[in-house]
């Protein structure tokens, strides 16, 4: 089954976040791509617990690195990189079915060279000046539901 969106977690560290994101992907018709190295084992019970009984329905893929991922899914204008350092908000991005949403490690986000080399495709979620960041699963949720809203895929 073709998925409407792709969530790419680059080197995630917290299994519970990944489990929650997996559950969210099932609910929104998205596939989940995990870019190694991971900060946990994919078989850890924390992932399964957070994903509950949804994990069996999740289309999840593991990739050795971003280069391997891009060999299958080449970069295009349909790839969006989320960062608190962005100037544009995700609500202004032209999101369509098949979009790719990239999120970085919980402790440091996406690498600055990746953001610089894809600068026209870097977006953020709007937050007050007092907030440095939000939880990764929450950021994925807001972004994915914006994609669902824009594509009217409900």
Residue-averaged pLDDT? 90
Oligomerization state: single chain
Q: Largest sheet, order of strands side by side?
A: 3-2-1-6-4-7-5
CATH topology-level name: Alpha/beta knot
Extract low-pLDDT stretches: none
Give the termini distance in whole angstroms: 17 Å
CATH class: Alpha Beta
What's the structural domain tally?
A: 1
Assign the CATH superfamily. Answer: SPOUT methyltransferase, trefoil knot domain
Shape: globular
Q: What CATH architecture would you give?
A: 3-Layer(aba) Sandwich
Helix content range of the residues, please? 25-40%
Rg over alpha carbons: 14 Å
Largest sheet: 7 strands, parallel
How does the helix and strand content classify structurally?
Answer: alpha/beta
- Separate helix tally: 5
How are helices and strands ordered from N to C? Answer: EHEHEHEEEHEH
Give the strand content: 15-25%
Count of DSSP E strands? 7
Description:
The protein is built from 5 helices and 7 strands. It is α/β, with parallel strands linked by helices and 154 residues long. It has one domain: SPOUT methyltransferase, trefoil knot domain (Alpha/beta knot, 3-Layer(aba) Sandwich). A 7-stranded parallel β-sheet has the order 3-2-1-6-4-7-5. The chain is globular and about 40 Å long. The two termini are 17 Å apart. InterPro entries: Alpha/beta_knot_MTases, SpoU_MeTrfase, TrmL, tRNA_m1G_MTases_N. Belongs to the class IV-like SAM-binding methyltransferase superfamily. RNA methyltransferase TrmH family. TrmL subfamily. Its EC number is 2.1.1.207. GO terms for molecular function: RNA binding; S-adenosylmethionine-dependent methyltransferase activity; tRNA methyltransferase activity.
